Amino acid sequence: MRVTHLSLTDFRNYAGAEVPFGAGPNLIVGRNGQGKTNLVEALGFLSTLSSHRVSQTGAMVRSGQDAAIIRARLEHNGRDILAEVQINRSGLNRAQINRSVIKTRELPRYFSSVLFAPEDLALVRGDPSGRRRFLDQLLVLRNPRLSGVLTDYDRVLKQRNTLLKSARASGLKTTQLGTLDIWDERLVALGSEIIDARADLVAQLLPPLHNAYQAVAGADHGPNLVASLSILGADEESDETGSPAATPPIDGSGTADTFRTALAGLRRKELDRGMTLAGPHRDDLVFELNNLPAKGYASHGESWSFALALKLASAELLRRDSSSGDPVLILDDVFAELDQSRRRRLAAAVTGYEQVLITAAVFEDVPAVLAAHAIHIHAGAVVENPVVDGGPTDTAPAAEDGAARG
């Protein structure tokens, strides 16, 4: 799969943009603040329905406007697809495929991409929520049906939490909470499917993760992924400064029973706190290097290599299993963080993908093998004939509101 053309209207600092892309490597270059990252953020949104930079989609709408539009022409096995999404500052977003209206959550089934950006360092060093989101986005890319399961789980979780809070406020006894048992069964059914799907994904990620880490870092530090499950007693709040204690995997056939038992044991504590204390919404994934948790022990370079290897492993899974072929691989502002040897190794690792999109502030940071097709950006516009030395890419002023890092 590849993107042949991207059109933006009122997205970030772009009043309008028309950007053609070719097969293989595409380098998007320009000074910081000109809009490079905005281009790849738009494409990332089409495949994940989220931004790697902000949690609120309204932030992607250009200042003073009510909506932004992303249109991408895609090519897969000789078939052309026009994917479109309108991001509304208020109200629901809207999506179309080949001019026919679809549910927005169905967009990821038409476009697959894997994006790595500096923000992904938080996968290693940040909160469990980021690691859960990483797993769930990859699950949906591989199996779009799971989007509905995740949405239904969130809905049931909110209903159950509302009931728990009401019970706490009214002082109801556990024997008076028959309705809670009904929500428990729905939570267990949906949550067990998510837990098992994540466990299967982690098992499949491990071999390509090992290979990708060695390819990027040039060393074998034994990268590993260990599930930390709340239904087995792990508590993401137990240690705010370090990684939670890893818990062993459980037999998939017993996940529902284990979940049900955990809820029963936590019933009094949940009523006291007015919230659900076990389930996939409170699980974590422990990253290990040399048998130690990467969070708290890994150096900056090791953490960076782990996060990058995790995304490359994700791309490898998608290219192996997806009916749409290679995902579009997006590397946002990556090469500036790497020394020359790691740049060469990363270039060698990604050149086999059908399409790679790379952003960089400095043209020379990117190995020549990835820089043959360059797209120069200045102040929210594609520059047709840039003057690299002393020209727009070197002396451009900051872009207007909404450019952010790109």
UniProtKB/TrEMBL annotation:
Tagged with keyword Disulfide bond: no
All copies of domain RecF/RecN/SMC N-terminal, residue ranges: 3-360
Protein's GO biological process: DNA replication; DNA synthesis involved in DNA repair; double-strand break repair; SOS response
SUPFAM superfamilies (UniProt xref): P-loop containing nucleoside triphosphate hydrolases (SSF52540)
One term of GO molecular function: ATP binding
Binding site for ATP: 30-37
Entry keyword Cytoplasm: yes
Entry's localization field: Cytoplasm
Region spans: Disordered: 236-255, 386-406
Family: Belongs to the RecF family.
PANTHER family according to UniProt: DNA REPLICATION AND REPAIR PROTEIN RECF (PTHR32182:SF0)
Stored HAMAP family: RecF (MF_00365)
NCBIfam families in the cross-refs: recf (TIGR00611)
Annotated protein name in UniProt: DNA replication and repair protein RecF
Source species: Cryobacterium arcticum
